[in-house]
Each structure stands twice: as C-alpha cells, then as structure tokens.
Design brief:
three-stranded antiparallel β-sheet, disordered C terminus, 2 domains, binds adenine, alpha+beta, Endonuclease III, domain 1, four-stranded mixed β-sheet, Nucleoside Triphosphate Pyrophosphohydrolase, single chain
Length: 368
C-alpha cells in the first residue's frame, strides 16, 4: 500500500495535466470545478469554468445571483439541477457560515447538492482532510487494482471501493491522492484499451495480472431507456417573441425554459384543447413543425412539433422572449433544437443557441 501510494503520487506529480482548478486551495473554485466535472468532460468544462468564475468570482456573488444569469452561465453544460443546487448551497454558505465553506466532512455534507463525492472532493482537495472521493474514474482504477468484481456503483462493490479510497486518503496527502486517482483513470486507466505500460500500479494491479481488464469494473445493469412521446408547441406572439415555460423543479428539464410540452403525440385539435385547459393558452392555426428525437440519460424523447400563433394575451406562467435574447436566459439544448427545427431558418439565423455553440466548439477543437 505504502509503495503503491508513493508511486501514484510520483506519477501524478510528473504527469498531471495543468488545469485551471489545480494548484490552488480556494474551496469555492474547487467546488465549482467538481460540480461542473460531474457528468461532463474536462474539455467541455474548460470552455465554461473561467467564464463562470469571471461572472461569479465568489460564493457571495453566486448567492446573490439572479437565477436567469446562472442558467445563462450554465447553458449547454447540461444537468441543470447541479446549478440549481449550487445556487442553494451558495446561499447556505453565506447565510449560515458567514461566507466560508465548512471545513469538515459533516458540515459539507449538510449543504444542498453535497453528496458523498462532492463533500469528499472539496474536503480533501481544498482542506486536506483525509476523506475519500470516488468518481467513475477513481472507481475504475481501484476496482482493477484490487481485482474487485462487484459493480462499484452499488452495494458491496461500492463499500469496498470507498474503503480502499479511504485508506489511501488517510495515508495522504489526501488532496493529491484524490486527484491522482481521478487523473490516472482519466488519462491512463481508460475504460477500453488502457495504457497499462504507462501505469504506476502496473506491477500490483490484479486485473492486469489476471487479464481481467475487460471485465472490471463490472458493467452497471441499466434499465432500458423509456421512450416518451411529447407534443411541443412553438408559439409566437404578435411581436414574433416565442413563449417559454419555466418547467417545474421536479420534472423533466426542471427549472429550465422550454416551449410548452404536452404529454403524448397529440393531434392539432387535442393540442389546442390541452393547451387551453392546462395552460390557459389560446392558439391559432397549428402548422406541423416536424419531429425530433432527443436522448437523455434515462429517457428517449420523441417530440412532435407544431408552430402556431398566440391568440390574445400570454397567460401568466408563459414568458414571451425575443429570439435575439434567448441566450440571456440560458435555454437548454432541447429548446434550441425545437426552435431550430420548427422555425424558418431566416428567423433563427445568427442566433447564439446552445446546440449551435456546441457544434461550433466541436468544429474548433477538431481543427486546432
Ligand atoms: N474529474 C473530477 N474531478 C476532477 C479533477 N479535480 N480534475 C480532473 N478531472 C476531474
């Protein structure tokens, strides 16, 4: 264990990538990076991290932020729930802890959105507490190294993996151990075709010795994705503003602005009556706007689009937004995809929409 720990730390010191959240101890900045990095690749996070911190340089500035601005800064990163929890946690840090992040694992765990991983990551990286933090990368490294055959995301497999990470963190230094495990998983101990010749743990790795790399970590048993059919209404008012609905916190796209989404594949007539009954929305002629398949982590959405005009006034709860100001609101990718599909090209030409921005970034990355 001691030898492995030393080898890992030496490897990390020599091979770590230079990333903007490294080599500093500011709990706020470390926390922002750890939240962004959950479910999102480093390359994508690099396009957001500094911009987010320029806009919200301190936990106080985030706590005081307008939710629309946070949405806009997050737009395109996905899993917006993370940002909503961040806003809540920032408020709690300011109001309950005088603007200082608690420097204990228990104190951190009590903050909104601080699960075991986030609390462990901030505790170890920012405060050097001997706390483990196991993400998917670290779990892959540890299960292979120790030859753990159980699924590390649940039950006994999870317990054993966290216990191993805790032993490593306790031997310390925890800040480097946490990041070294993640870095090894992200750059060497890859899911497929890992570069074992470059690995500091090659000589002690059970999966390498027993040729079990392709079997460890055990695959998660995922339930097949459910397909959900929805009818999306792209409604323009007399000034060509589009009507958007702030989705309820608990549902799909919670807290984000989307066009009105009705359950099921509805006919124009049913769409009109449902819009009237559920949203108080009076619609003109409904023109077909095509179909769209949108894939989320646990669901596949099949959207049937209609383009239409508002009759009368917009009901409370629906917000008319000029197309040129959509980017200020921080709309999710689903919203821009629906608008791009249903509206004439002339109306959306030149707009900065999340799906277009991702495409532009991807192109830029390929050509650089
Ligand atoms: N993924 C999660 N945390 C990370 C970190 N601190 N550096 C790089 N990738 C990460």
């Amino acid at each position: 264990m001691k030898k492995d720990s030393r080898r890992l730390l030496e490897w990390y010191e020599r091979n770590k990538r230079s990333l903007p959240w490294r080599n500093q101890k500011d709990a706020y900045r470390i926390w922002v990076s750890e939240i962004m990095l959950q479910q999102t690749r480093v390359e994508t996070v690099l396009n957001y991290y500094e911009r987010f911190l320029d806009r919200f340089p301190s936990v106080e500035s985030l706590a005081a932020a307008d939710p629309d601005e946070v949405r806009a800064a997050w737009s395109g990163l996905g899993y917006y729930r993370r940002a909503r929890f961040m806003l809540e946690a920032a408020k709690a840090v300011v109001s309950e802890h005088a603007g200082e992040f608690p420097n204990t694992l228990l104190g951190l765990r009590a903050l909104p959105g601080f699960g075991r991983y986030t609390a462990g990551a901030v505790a170890s990286i920012a405060f050097d507490l001997p706390a483990p933090a196991v993400d998917g990368n670290a779990a892959r490294v540890i299960t292979r190294w120790r030859g753990i055959r159980e699924d590390p995301s649940r039950g006994e497999g999870e317990r054993v993996v966290w216990a191993e990470a805790e032993r490593l963190a306790k031997a310390g230094p925890a800040a480097e151990i946490t990041q070294a495990l993640i870095e090894l998983g992200a750059t060497v101990c890859l899911p497929r075709n890992p570069s074992c010749t470059r690995c500091p743990w090659r000589s002690s790795c059970v999966a390498h010795r027993d040729q079990l790399i392709s079997l460890i970590p055990a695959k998660k048993k995922r339930a097949p994705k459910k397909t959900v059919e929805l009818t999306a209404l792209v409604v323009l008012d007399e000034r060509d503003r589009v009507l958007l609905l702030e989705q309820p916190d608990s549902g799909l796209f919670g807290g984000l602005y989307t066009p009105p989404l009705l359950e099921g594949h509805l006919s124009p007539r049913r769409s009109r009556s449902t819009a009237r009954n559920e949203l108080g929305l009076e619609l003109g002629e409904l023109a077909p706007g095509g179909q769209l398949r949108h894939i989320l982590t646990h669901r596949e959405l099949e959207l049937h689009l209609f383009r239409t005009r508002l009759v009368g006034r917009a009901p409370a709860g629906l917000r008319p937004v000029s197309l040129g100001r959509l980017h200020e609101l921080g709309i999710p990718t689903i919203t821009s995809r629906v608008l791009e599909q249903a509206l004439p090209e002339a109306m959306i030409e030149g707009l900065v929409l999340p799906s277009r921005r991702s495409a532009a970034l991807a192109t830029r990355r390929r050509s650089s």
